[in-house]
Design brief:
Radius of gyration: 18 Å
Number of helices: 10
CATH superfamily of the domain at 7-146 and 169-195 and 244-253: Vaccinia Virus protein VP39
Shape: globular
CATH topology of the domain at 7-146 and 169-195 and 244-253: Rossmann fold
Order of helices and strands: HHHEHEHEEHEHHEHHE
Length: 255
């Protein structure tokens, strides 16, 4: 039996597909940022924000557009290069949630969009508390596929059977227990549902940019995505897929 790809290999797999990631991954709805402001107890405008695991800058750009003074933290060469090309006016430093090359008590808010599950909470929680000012907030969120929609649930089951795990909806990275297993912080949870309509090619490129596809290689991914196109055309004969997401948001205030 082939060994399952390691956590580290999956975490680094995005660097080879940074352009695909930037072009096809979903963004986040305005209601999410409204919820972040509400739970953090302050507006984003003028806030000093550190966006951890910023990737290609999908969330960072939204924070910047809200008026935040945002600094991105990203460990990967490929993702950081894509970020710099797309967002030359936003500062980015190399690091990750386990080690942020930033001063103590320098941030009003730390965010991690689709990235906290790549950190080690035993290190990343204390590091976040070091970087946050007293009363600052840590906000973590993930776009998760909605499984009460039949076609999406069926797609997840096909992917699980093909790869041995579910690459589209990996909820193991979400929830306060996995985000902070030692219970250091008191997280408040909010779920924000939203959707987008995209061509089938965009949808396939989106799911193909998930780590389990990347680590299993081009041949396996091509086989699965070709079969998936057939299923999708049966469901969406006009070639436009409505992707629905629940954004799973966790916010905790620093002591």
């Amino acid at each position: 039996m082939t060994a399952a790809p390691s956590h580290s290999s999956r975490a680094h797999s995005f660097n080879s597909a940074a352009a695909q990631y930037a072009a096809n991954r979903p963004s986040y709805p305005p209601a999410l940022l409204d919820a972040v402001e509400e739970l953090a107890g302050r507006p984003l405008a003028g806030a000093r924000v550190v966006d951890v695991g910023a990737g290609t800058g999908i969330a960072t750009a939204l924070l910047h557009a809200r008026g935040a003074e945002v600094v991105a933290v990203e460990p990967g060469d490929g993702m950081a290069a894509q970020f710099r090309e797309a967002h030359p006016d936003i500062p980015i430093v190399r690091g990750d949630g386990n080690h942020m090359p930033l001063a103590d008590s320098c941030a009003d808010l730390i965010t991690a969009a689709q990235s906290w599950h790549w950190t080690d909470p035993a290190r990343s929680i204390p590091e976040a508390l070091r970087v946050l000012r007293p009363g600052g907030a840590l906000a973590l969120w993930w776009n998760t596929t909605v499984l009460d929609i039949p076609w999406a649930a069926a797609q997840g089951m096909r992917a699980e059977k093909f790869f041995g795990i579910d690459p589209v909806v990996e909820r193991s990275g979400t929830g306060s227990r996995s985000a902070d297993p030692d219970g250091v912080l008191d997280f408040t949870r909010r779920v924000v549902r939203w959707s987008r309509r995209v061509p089938i090619d965009t949808h396939l490129a989106n799911i193909g940019s998930h780590s389990v596809f990347l680590v299993h290689g081009q041949e396996a991914s091509t086989v699965f995505l070709a079969e998936e196109r057939t299923h999708l055309l049966e469901e969406f004969p006009d070639g436009i897929v409505e992707e629905t997401y629940d954004v799973d948001l966790l916010v905790a205030l620093a002591p």
